[in-house]
Amino acid sequence: MGKVGFLIKRIATLDYKNLMKTAGEVHEASGKSRISAFTDIVKCGMKYQAGYMDYKLFKMYELSDEERAKILTRGKNDAYVRRLNDKEYVGIFSDKAEFNKHFDKYLCREWILLDGNNEADFAKFIQNKEQIIVKPLGLCCGKGIEILDPRKYGIHELYEYLIKNQSYLVEEVVKQSAEISAIYPSSVNTIRIVTVLSDNNVPSIVGAYMRIGTGGNVVDNFNHGGITAPINIKTGKIEHKARNKSNVYFSNHPDTNAQILGFTIPNWSGLTDYAKSLALVMPKMRYVGWDICITEKGFAVIEANEYPGNDLYQIPKEDIGTANLIEDALKK
């Protein structure tokens, strides 16, 4: 599906009420008339495959045509996913257990998949563990994930509870490095690194951001109260404020007051090499977002996303996470 297909699909499914609402918000923010804002939104949809949310999020009303062309819009992102990721392999990434099986070498943690008949194996697994993390297989965005102390439960009681809640995937809790934990200790704060694999199987980093939990949550997901901060992919430094889903910005963590703006990711060179090695494991999946934990012993991939988002690491005015990086990566 190219530009024409994207436009037909968008026209058929467009939420015109919210489109007009966005045009009104652009009018308030920019001084453009509502008609002018509406027309410009439609123009960007046709020319850059940008949805009205792209237009608002990236403040396209402030950008030149040259700057607009560099944005990885939702339409462009969808096209890359379809072009670069083989549908036959997508299920491996969306199913947490299948992912663990294929990337076991890179997990750096023990795990077990419950099947209703392996209570004895589960008992051995939790022995001497102070914490376990349990994950439902069919949910996303951190939903249903719990950290439990197995010592507080009877083995049968806990096993039955997990089976009942379909929390079939049970893992050892990864211990993140002291530097990362100091920012927010209640969740594993991962680094999302987006990789692209060229036709010649050369992996490149095209975007990165840090995901950080807040408010006592045990997950760092943006849609579950987390905040994100874009990372300079050359230096590993956070050069812009973190933000939450409500577009509130933070130089320091809202709970711990730890510095975020100006923080440099530890061992950035080693981390990017690790991400590139992940990208080579399954070459049929050429465009992936990897959520990686920096541990006390090295790196641990937590999960991977077969549909990398286009919104959390781009700052068009700063040329961060823009579409031209993907095109350059594909030429290698």
Describe the structure.
This protein is an alpha+beta fold. It folds into 3 domains: 3-69, no CATH class; 110-172, 2-Layer Sandwich (Dna Ligase, domain 1), CATH 3.30.1490; 176-330, ATP-grasp fold, B domain (D-amino Acid Aminotransferase, Chain A, domain 1). It has 13 helices and 11 strands. It has helices at residues 3-13, 16-30, 34-48, 52-57, 65-69, 74-84, 87-94, 96-102, 119-126, 155-164, 178-181, 268-279, 323-330; strands at 111-113, 132-135, 146-148, 169-172, 191-197, 203-212, 227-230, 242-243, 249-250, 287-294, 299-305. It has a 5-stranded antiparallel beta sheet with strand order 7-6-5-10-11. Helix 2 (16-30) packs across helix 3 (34-48) and helix 7 (87-94) crosses helix 8 (96-102). It starts with a helix and ends with a helix. The model has no long low-confidence stretch (mean pLDDT 90).
